[in-house]
Write a structure and sequence with these properties.
heterodimer; A: 430 residues; alpha+beta; 4-stranded mixed sheet; 3-stranded antiparallel sheet; 16 strands; B: 158 residues; alpha/beta; 5-stranded mixed sheet; disordered C terminus
């Protein structure tokens, strides 16, 4: 038997840096370890002693691609601690903001990070040389996502108009006129994206995942709902800590999130989609049926289609909200500062994002806990790789590496705050 | 199309990775309205839009290339990509080198593009910029001005 070692310094096209190691003995996978995410411990510590009102601006800097998600989980948690209730207008506009972020993030992933894999290109740049119109379509869509966030929140990256209680300022409906026109154009671009993704070639790969997501009876979830799973979990978000925990697992050096007494679980678009399909508008469900992707879907490689469908949904939802927008006051609600504990759980583009804050009687943060979606998915990604490598062990190392990278990118992992580089090592011995 | 544009790229919360933003702020402070200066976290669409607004572009960003921390160097990206050994290392989503090459592939790259790269040390979250990097701000500002002063028709244009 022979021994092979491959070292790769970084995972291409995953935000930030990361890597993995694979050990193969006698043609069988013995071990797979993946460390691609470092939880935002600095931010949890940094938040201690800060005013709760600062949480949205501070946490927005955890991630350059999903600052809105961090802001939303933060404000909902702080508002819960203070007992604040937002108005229906604020609630709708927060959904609009999230629509912008989903479009930005999903489209960047679909066109720039993951599509090159499916088409056999080394990068989006190589893909653009042959498929300029495809890439231009992605850029046009992403720009519209940016425009939603910039119009509503003052800046496309690290929005500045979000605050505890609502917004600093709410624009009148006519200020959204240009955006509304762009969104009308985006409908066609998003539909084309769905159809284009659906015709890609997908590996046959499914596992029996525990899918976990927010669920709301009346809407596809962004900011509110209960946490449910396809295996019977149904809890209020305040009970998150009783059911999910970061643990040291025997086969891994990294902390992994587990559903207590159950194991690894799956958050993100495929979880949301399977658990909330009925909450999607008719047009989205119709398109899903046309491209043959009604649930259940347990093939993570098809997450790229689901992201495209969620983008199509986000465009529809953004139009609906803008068309219904009337009030600009109050831009935010206020209330007395009290001590308390608050939980916020929202659906970031990559999945469930949980925040918990404990406030003192002056409204300052005593303790903060932030659990991002990529942190929650690490165990599942590792388990995917373990099985995926086993199915592809006969590939040469270069091809195996590329296939594994594609498998990891199913989760669109966000490691923009990763703090260490890892080597990919395929260690084969007889 | 507007005149020259300088874009400082970075992350204010990631130690030395703030250098691009710091240089942009210094340029704006000294030039006022006489020079267009933007700040960016590296967002792909924002940068491509900025590229479309000028034919004379100077980018400022952190790099990791094995040089001494604080060393300032320049790269002419008008015709050729960034040398592999000087690929910017940052916490941005789509690296600057990739954005430039995407722009070139799509025909959106300005006619004249320079990168002023500052060699960095640590990008630890929450850490301040290192002293050597702070000291590089003025040098980087002067380098940017040198690129903008050079005559584009001069074959030795910097």
């Amino acid at each position: 038997m022979t021994s092979r070692t491959i070292e790769v310094d970084y995972l291409a096209r995953v935000e930030g840096e990361g890597g993995m190691s694979v050990r193969i003995r006698g043609g069988k996978v013995e071990d797979v370890q993946l460390r691609i995410f470092e939880p935002p411990r600095f931010f949890e510590a940094f938040l201690r002693g800060r005013a709760g009102s600062e949480a949205p601006d501070i946490t927005a800097r955890i991630c350059g691609i999903c600052p809105v998600a961090y802001q939303m989980s933060a404000v909902h948690a702080i508002e819960a601690a203070l007992g604040l209730e937002i108005t229906p207008t604020i609630r709708e506009l927060r959904r609009l903001l999230y629509c912008g972020e989903w479009i930005e993030s999903h489209i960047l992933h679909v066109y720039m990070l993951h599509a090159p894999d499916f088409l056999g290109y080394e990068s989006a740049i190589h893909m653009a040389a042959d498929h300029k119109d495809v890439v231009e379509r992605g850029l046009a869509l992403k720009k519209i996502g940016n425009a939603i966030v910039e119009t509503l929140a003052g800046r496309a990256i690290h929005p500045i108009n979000v605050r505890v209680g609502g917004f600093h300022r709410i624009l009148p409906r006519h200020a959204f006129r240009e955006l509304r026109a762009q969104l009308q154009e985006a409908l066609g671009l998003a539909e084309t994206t769905v159809r284009w993704c659906a015709q890609l070639d997908f590996p046959e790969f499914e596992r029996d995942y525990e899918l976990v997501a927010l669920h709301h009876p009346d809407e596809y979830p962004f900011n509110e709902g209960r946490i449910i799973s396809n295996r019977g979990l149904d809890i209020p978000i305040e009970d998150y800590g009783q059911h999910f925990r970061e643990v040291h697992v025997a086969h891994s050096n990294a902390l992994q999130c587990v559903h207590i007494d159950h194991g690894a679980y799956f958050v993100g678009p495929m979880a949301r989609y399977n658990l909330n399909f009925d909450q999607l508008p008719d047009a989205v469900r119709q398109l899903a049926a046309e491209v043959g992707l009604e649930p259940p879907c347990y093939n993570p490689f098809k997450s790229i289609i689901i992201r495209a469908l969620e983008t199509y949904f986000a465009v529809h939802e953004a139009i609906r909200i803008i068309d219904g927008h009337r009030e600009t006051e109050p831009a935010h609600v206020r209330g007395p500062i009290v001590a308390g504990v608050g939980h916020g759980c929202t659906e970031a583009p990559r999945g469930l994002l949980y925040h918990r804050y404990e406030l003192d009687e002056d409204g300052n943060i005593l303790q903060a806990q932030i659990v991002p979606p990529t942190s929650q998915n690490q165990g599942t990604i590792e388990n995917d790789l373990r099985e995926f490598v086993g199915l592809n062990v006969e590939l040469d190392d270069e091809q195996l590496q590329w296939q594994c990278e594609q498998a990891i990118r199913n989760y669109d992992p966000c490691i923009s705050c990763a703090t260490h580089f890892l080597n990919m090592k395929v260690d084969r011995q007889p | 199309m507007s005149g020259p544009l300088v874009i400082g790229i970075g992350n204010a919360l990631r130690g030395d990775d703030a250098i691009g933003l710091r240089v942009a702020a210094a340029l704006r402070g000294r030039a006022g309205d006489n020079l267009r200066v933007h700040e960016s976290n590296g967002d792909l669409t924002q940068l491509l839009d900025d590229f479309a607004s000028t034919q004379d572009l100077v980018l400022v960003d952190a790099i990791v290339s094995g040089r001494e921390a604080g060393e300032v160097c320049s790269f002419d990206l008008s015709r050729d990509p960034l040398p592999v050994e000087a690929q910017p290392n940052s916490s941005h989503v789509f690296s600057l080198a990739q954005v430039v090459e995407m722009a070139r592939t799509l025909g959106r790259l300005p006619a004249r593009v320079h990168l002023v790269g500052i060699e960095i040390g640590s990008v630890r979250t929450g850490a301040p910029m290192g002293e050597a990097i702070e000291s590089a701000v003025d040098v980087a500002v002067e380098r940017v001005h040198a690129h903008l002063r050079a005559d584009p028709k001069d074959p030795t244009h910097a």
